[in-house]
Fold each of these.
Amino acid sequence: MAQQSGGQIDTVMQEARLFPPPAEFAAAARIGSLEAYQEMWDEAEADIEGFWGRLATEELHWFKPFTKVLDWKSPFAKWFVGGKTNACYNCVDVHLGTPRQNKAAIIWEGEPGDQRTLTYQQLHGEVSKFANVLLGQGVKAGDVVSIYMPMVPELVVAMLACARIGAVHSVIFGGFSSEAIADRNNDARAKLQITADGGWRRGSILPLKETVDEALKKSPTIEKCIVVRRTGTDVNMTPGRDFWYDELMDAAAAECPAAELDSEHPLYILYTSGSTGKPKGIKHTTAGYSLFTKMTTRWVFDLRDEDVYWCTADCGWVTGHSYLVYGPLANGATVLMYDGAPNWPDEGRFWEMIERHRVSIFYTAPTAIRSFIKWGDHWVDEHDLSSLRLLGTVGEGINPEAWMWYHRKIGRERCPIVDTWWQTETGGIMMTPLPGAIPTKPGSCTKPLPGIVPEIVDGNGKPVAPNHGGMLVISKPWPGMLRGIWGDDERYKEQYWTRVPGKYLCGDNARQDDDGYYWIMGRIDDVLNVAGHRLSTIEIESALVSHPKVAEAAAVGRPHEVKGEAVAVFVVLRGATASEALKEELKKHVRKEIGALAVPDDIRFTQTLPKTRSGKIMRRLLRDIASGKAEVGDTTTLEDFGVLAKLRENEE
Ligand code: PRX
C-alpha cells in the first residue's frame, strides 16, 4: 500500500467509498452525529485537563479525590495526582448493590464446549478469595506476578486479584516459549507465577506447566507457582513451590477489601517488541488507564447494558487487557470469553458462538477476517448473525477488500465497523470511527477520539501537508499513555520522545486525506506485524544467531495473504551445509527461543548479506527479494547478493 522513496513516503492507495453510520444506529447512539463528535473533540482539545478531570470525577470511584489532573514533566506524566482508587474496585465492586449485581460479567466457553458464567457478584467473590490467596503467599503491593495461562475465567480473576491488592501483573501470552517467559520474569523481577496444567488448542493439549517448569529453572526471583487445573494433565508439582489453585481457594477467606492505591500505582507490565532485541516492559498505572479504557470502551462500542460483547483477543496482548477485562467490566458489560481456536471443531465455531450467545458486538483482528474469507462463506451462511449490531477490528490495518467482506457477510450491511488504531503503549483506542457519528472509509481508522491530538510530521518534526505520508506523533498527553518502560527510563525517553522532541512517537507512518481522515501506512522501525502481533526483526535475528551453525541473519516481512506479514529470514551459515533439514532445525530453534508465532515462514541461505558501505543491512532489498519483487539469479538455495547490492548501493 505504501512505498518509500528517498526518505519521503508516497501513497498509492486510492479508496473513495464512504459509508455513513446507519440512520437507525446513529439515532440511538451515545454520540450520534459528526457535529456532536467534533464539538466534543474541540472541547477536549481546548482544555485537556478540564475534559479528563471532569470524566475522572464522574466515572471513577475515589477513596480519596485527586487534587491535580495532570503533572506533566515531559516525558513523564502523572494523572489525577493525590487521588486514591483501585482498578479492580472500579471493575467489580462498583456494580454490587446495583441492578448489575446479578448480571453476567463473563460468559465463558472452552474449546471442548464446556461453559461457565460468572455474575458480577460471583466474580467479586472469586477475585476477593484469590486476592487473599496471593496475600497468603506473601505477595505485597508493588510485587510483580507473572501470569501464563489459557483463556480461562481464572486468568481474569488473577489479573483483577492482583489489581485488588496492588500487585503488578505481567501476563505472558500462552504461545511464548520457556525462554521468553524466563526473560520477562527476570526483567520484571517477578515474585510469583500463575499457570495451568495445560491448555486446549485444536483438540490437543498445550503443556503449559511443563513450559513453566523450564522457565522457572531460569527465573530465580519466582518463589511460588500457582497452578489451575484445566486439562487434567499429569504435571510435576515441586513441593513448597507449586500449589493447586483450587486447594488454595478452598482454604481462603471470602472478604478482601480493595487496597486504596495511589492514582499512579503501577497496574501492569506488558512486554512488547521494539526495534532492539530486548522486549520492552510497557508500564501502565491505575487511575489514568482505568478511566481511559472505561471511556473509550463506552464511546467506541457504544456499549449498552443489553449488549453481549465479544472481543476475541487473548489476554496475553493489550487488547485482552483493555477491551476484554478493564474497559468492558468497568462499564458493567456482559463479556463473552472463549478459550480455543476459531476453527475447532470446525470453521464455523465463531458464528455458532455468536448465534448461541446472541452476541451484539464483535471485535476481532484483520488476520482472523482473512482466515474467515479463506475458509469460505458457507461457514457463515449456516448461522443466524442477526444479533450483531456493531463490528470492530484491531491490530493492523485492514485491507479494503477484507473490510468489504466483513461489512457484507458478517455485518449484513447493517453494522458499523470500527477500525481501531492504537498500541500497547497507548493503553487504549486512539483513532477510530465513532459508530454513530463518523462515516467510515474501508482501510482508514478515520479520526482521533476526544482528548487525543495526533499530528503527522516529517523528519524535522514539521507538519506535512494532507495526502503526504509522515511520522505519526501524539502531541498532548492522555490518561492511558504508558508511564515508561519497566526499569529503563532512558530507553523510554529515547524510543518515544527524542526523535520529535516533546511529542509521543508511536513508530507508525500515516497520512491524512482531504477529509482529515487518517490512514496508517505501516511501521517506521524494524518491527513486523504478523497476524496482528508485533515482532521485532532483531529479536528473531538474535534467536537465529544463537544457533551454533548460524553466523549472521536478517529478518524481514513479506506480504502474506492471511497473516498480513510473514517472517522471511536470510541466513549466513558458519561453515555448515545448507539443507532442508537445517531449515527445520532453525525453525525449531526459533520456536524454542521465542515461540511459535515468530517461526520464519521462509528461510533462505546466503553467503553474504547485502550491506551499505556503513554496514547497515539493506532491508529494503531483502524485503523486495522476499516478496518476489526482485530476482537474484538462482534463488533455489544460495543467493549471491553481490551484484544487486552493488547496484542498489549507488541508489542509497
Ligand atoms: O502498527 C500499528 C498496528 O499495530 C501496532 C501496535 O501493536 P500492539 O502494540 O501489539 O497493539 C496491537 C493492538 C492494539 C501499531 O503501532 N495497528 C494496530 N491497530 C491498527 C494498526 N495498524 C493499522 N490499523 C489499525 N487499526
Note: The longest strand covers residues 550-560.
Amino acid sequence: MEIIVLPDAAEVGRVAAAKVASVARRREDPVLGLATGSSPTAIYAELAAEVAAGRLDLRRARGFALDEYVGIPLEHPESYASVIARDVVGPLGMDPALVRVPDGRAADLEAAAVEYDEAIRAAGGVDVQILGIGANGHIGFNEPTSSLASRTRIKTLAPRTREDNARFFDSVDDVPTHCLTQGLGTIMEAREVVLVAQGEAKAEAVAGAVEGPVSSAVPGSVLQFHPHATVVVDEAAASRLRLVDYYRHTYAHKPAWQRFA
Ligand code: GLP
C-alpha cells in the first residue's frame, strides 16, 4: 500500500486524480471503477479540468459504479445512477452508453448482481477503481462483517451509513435500507485502487484499514492484500495513523520515475 498524506482536501483531489489519469492514459478505452459520495468529488473536478484542457480523453472509457440503492426511482436525484450521470459521466465527457450502475430496481436483484460481475469481467476488468471509505470502514457499501471474498450482491445498510447519508435526503427515513454493491472480492480484482479520505470523521476508519489487522470488521482493511493500492488522505484523516512520519518520508523521497503528480 502506498499512503500519501497531504495538507488539505484540495491536494488530495489533485494527487488522486493524477494517479487515476496516469492509469487512464495507458489505453484508449480504460475501464474506470466509479465511486459516489463526497470523497471523490474533487477527483472528478480535477479529471474534468484535464478533459476540458484536452489533456485527457475519456470518450471511449468504460465505467462501472461501485453500488446503488435498492428501490430508489431511477430519476431520483440521489440515485447513484443520477449522481454518476450528473457528476461523473457529463463532466468527464464519458459516453453514457459505456457506463454501468448496478440495477437497484431489477425484479431479480440476485440475478442483476451476478450479471454485473459478469459485465465487469467481460469488459476485461477494472483498470483503476476510485474508492472512498465510510466512517465505519466500509468500501462500496460493504458494511462491517462483509465477506472479504464477496461478489456483487444485496446488502443491508448499517444504521450509521444511513445516518451519514441522510444529508443527501430529506430525512434519515428516506434513505433506502438496502443496496446492491460490488463485493470486496470484486473490488480486489481491479488492477489499481485509489482510496481517498478527508476529515477527522474518517481518521479511525483510515487507521483501521491501513494499519489495523485485516478483518471484515473494517472492510477497507482488505486492501492490505491488494498489490497496487494507493491511499491518499489529508492531515485530519491521517491523524490516527501511527506511522504517519514514515509515510511522509516515503512520499518526500519517492524516486522521480515513480512520481505521477
Ligand atoms: C457511501 C458510498 C461509498 C462511499 C462512502 C463514503 O455511502 N456507498 O462508496 O465511499 O459511503 O461516503 P462519503 O465519501 O460521502 O463520505
Note: Residues 2-258 form a domain with the Rossmann fold fold (CATH 3.40.50.1360).
